[in-house]
């Protein structure tokens, strides 16, 4: 956001006249030429009484001082250099201001559009209008979605099981840290080659491999769970899914060695162990207003019915059913929406401040000579004023503000709600930009009436183009996507459009502001302003070379002229002396 202090005095508090020797900023590359000019002048004066034809004496005789003349001729060069450096500095500041806006946009995105953020705002589950609280959370946990009915839910039953193979080995006292060779007939290295659910699974073991190592390795390679329990002295293999449709087959692969067969026999009782089929869970649920339980069969222990998600961890006795209380969390949802609106207002207020700044043309980038006469605080205050208005009325930022404002105003398809229904409005004062106000009472009332519609208005994804980005859609396709998206989804698209750091825009481009200003982390700045700065830097470098050449040229010419005039002066003195002698005779 803008860091310009718009309250600074409108008059020029540090007025210092420019001189031909001024160099912008801290660039002192050529300042020595100015110093040397004045030094040479001083040294010439100091030797004028020696009686010899020193430069100062000859200059006085010829009517001019070489150093002074060169300095005078170089004034226009130094003035132009100052102008080049000032232009370069302004471009750098403009780039920095854009990058500041990019950082703020991406910070907002990281807070609310990153799935790993605790404030993630692009999922309906991030705005749950109800809280589900079970009486026994060790047996079942629950989440109430926005379509749930508040009240008490009860559940008991037998959980679904996975297809499995279990066996207690003949050996006792095994541990997961024991060497694997104790299970495979003493083989210290080799390959366990299995067929698991028709898939070839190989695991290479060494003399240092433990039982736990092999169990984990086979699990990672096969997609099912191999394990050994030290507590029950039991080897197990469990399929990754539960229910009657889950299956499991484990056998030594064709061509496998004897160590593989020994491992299966010692751990699982057979080289071709038989699995126990998985079973569906049988649950009995009673919802608010019901007097009896309804039986349901589920292949998974994690399922959702009538807006309530159940995650069953263990069998629940009919004599001790778990009660789940679903209560309103409207205040929590309102609080979260208010937080997002506040963060959005901070973002858009900063952008609007940048757009509405007024340029004070009394302030120009400081030269080195000017900075040398000011304190650090004065320099900072001055530079702040110089930067003020750099992005005033900027087209990209203006379009960004317009896009963000429209994201709230345009109707979201299928929800039946408007921005006003959510208690949201923008100020009629154009100086407020896209800043929002939230009527908490109105939002609360709408949430109580239809929480699902409110959350969908904010978070729903496009059904036609759920995963495609704007960069991969035509204008008509994106308009369809836009109309179907919730407000926060639209804001996410807008941030990507302007501040994406990935090359996912058309032709591999990044966000519009990033393309314009680049990023500080870019190894090579190929942005529009980056290229401009490169050209300006080259222009400064080339002009510094020209200044050096000009100084040499002027010094050579005026020295030659001075020499000629000195000789003429000497001849004139000689002739005068001769004439004087002749007349006296």
Textual characterization of the structure:
Residues 294-569 form the Flagellar hook-associated protein 2 C-terminal domain. Pfam families: FliD_C (PF07195), FliD_N (PF02465). Residues 34-53 are annotated as: Disordered. One of its GO terms (cellular component) is extracellular region. Among the domains are: 130-159 and 280-328, no CATH class; 162-268, Alpha-Beta Plaits, CATH 3.30.70. The strands form five sheets. Strands 1-14-3-10-11 form a five-stranded antiparallel sheet, with no helix packed on it. The protein has helices at residues 31-46, 55-62, 66-112, 211-222, 258-268, 330-356, 368-371, 376-387, 395-409, 440-449, 451-459, 475-484, 487-499, 512-517, 528-584; strands spanning 130-134, 140-144, 151-158, 162-167, 190-196, 199-205, 225-229, 234-242, 250-252, 281-286, 294-298, 302-305, 308-312, 322-328, 424-426, 436-438. The chain is of the alpha+beta class and 585 residues long. Helix content is 44%, strand content 15%. Residues 1-59 have low confidence and may be disordered. It is built from 15 helices and 16 strands.
């Amino acid at each position: 956001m803008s860091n310009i202090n718009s309250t600074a005095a409108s008059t020029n508090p540090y007025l210092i006249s420019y001189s031909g020797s001024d160099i912008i900023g801290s660039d002192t590359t050529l300042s020595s030429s100015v110093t040397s000019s004045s030094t040479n002048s001083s040294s010439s004066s100091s030797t004028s009484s020696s009686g010899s034809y020193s430069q100062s004496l000859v200059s006085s005789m010829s009517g001019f001082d070489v150093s002074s003349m060169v300095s005078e001729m170089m004034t226009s060069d130094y003035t132009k250099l100052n102008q080049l450096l000032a232009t370069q500095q302004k471009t750098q500041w403009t780039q920095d201001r854009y990058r500041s806006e990019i950082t703020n946009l991406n910070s907002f995105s990281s807070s609310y559009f990153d799935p790993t953020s605790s404030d993630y705002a692009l999922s309906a589950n991030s705005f749950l209008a109800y809280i589900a609280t079970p009486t026994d959370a060790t047996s079942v946990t629950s989440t109430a979605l926005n379509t749930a009915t508040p009240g008490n839910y009860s559940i008991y039953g037998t959980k679904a099981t996975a297809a499995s193979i279990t066996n207690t080995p003949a050996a006792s006292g095994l541990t997961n840290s024991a060497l694997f060779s104790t299970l495979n007939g003493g083989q210290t290295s080799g390959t366990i080659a299995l067929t698991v659910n028709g898939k070839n699974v190989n695991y290479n073991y060494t003399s240092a491999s433990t039982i736990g190592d092999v169990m984990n390795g086979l699990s990672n390679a096969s997609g099912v769970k191999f394990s050994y329990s030290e507590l029950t002295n039991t080897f197990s293999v469990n399929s990754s899914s539960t229910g009657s449709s889950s299956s499991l087959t484990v056998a030594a692969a064709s061509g496998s060695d004897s160590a593989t067969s020994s491992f299966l026999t010692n751990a699982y009782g057979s080289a071709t162990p038989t699995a126990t089929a998985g079973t569906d869970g049988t649950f009995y649920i009673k919802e608010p207003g019901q007097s009896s339980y309804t039986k349901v069969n589920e292949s998974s222990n994690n399922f959702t019915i009538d807006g309530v998600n159940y995650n069953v961890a263990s069998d629940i006795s009919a004599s001790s059913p778990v009660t789940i209380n679903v209560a309103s969390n409207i205040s929590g949802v309102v609080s979260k929406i208010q937080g997002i609106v506040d963060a959005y207002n901070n973002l858009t207020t900063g952008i609007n401040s940048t757009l509405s700044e007024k340029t004070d043309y009394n302030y120009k980038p400081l030269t080195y000579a000017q900075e040398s006469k000011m304190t650090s605080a004065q320099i900072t205050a001055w530079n702040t004023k110089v930067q003020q208005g750099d992005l005033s009325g900027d087209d990209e930022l203006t379009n960004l503000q317009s896009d963000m404002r429209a994201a709230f105003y345009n109707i979201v398809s299928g929800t039946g709600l408007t921005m006003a229904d959510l208690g949201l409005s923008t100020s009629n004062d154009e100086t407020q930009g896209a800043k929002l106000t939230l009527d908490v009472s109105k939002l609360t009332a709408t949430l109580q009436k239809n929480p699902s519609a409110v959350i969908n208005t904010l978070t729903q994804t496009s059904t036609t183009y759920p995963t495609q980005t704007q960069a991969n859609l035509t204008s008509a396709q994106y308009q369809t996507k836009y109309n179907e998206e919730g407000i926060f989804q639209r804001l996410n698209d807008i941030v990507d459009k302007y501040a994406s750091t990935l090359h996912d825009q058309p032709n591999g481009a990044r966000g519009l502001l990033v393309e314009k200003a680049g990023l500080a982390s870019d190894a090579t700045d190929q942005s529009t302003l980056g290229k401009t700065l490169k050209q300006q830097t080259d222009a400064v470098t080339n002009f510094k070379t020209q200044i050096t050449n000009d100084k040499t040229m002027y010094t050579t010419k005026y020295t030659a002229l001075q020499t000629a005039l000195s000789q003429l002066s000497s001849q004139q003195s000689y002739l005068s002396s001769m004439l004087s002698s002749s007349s006296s005779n």
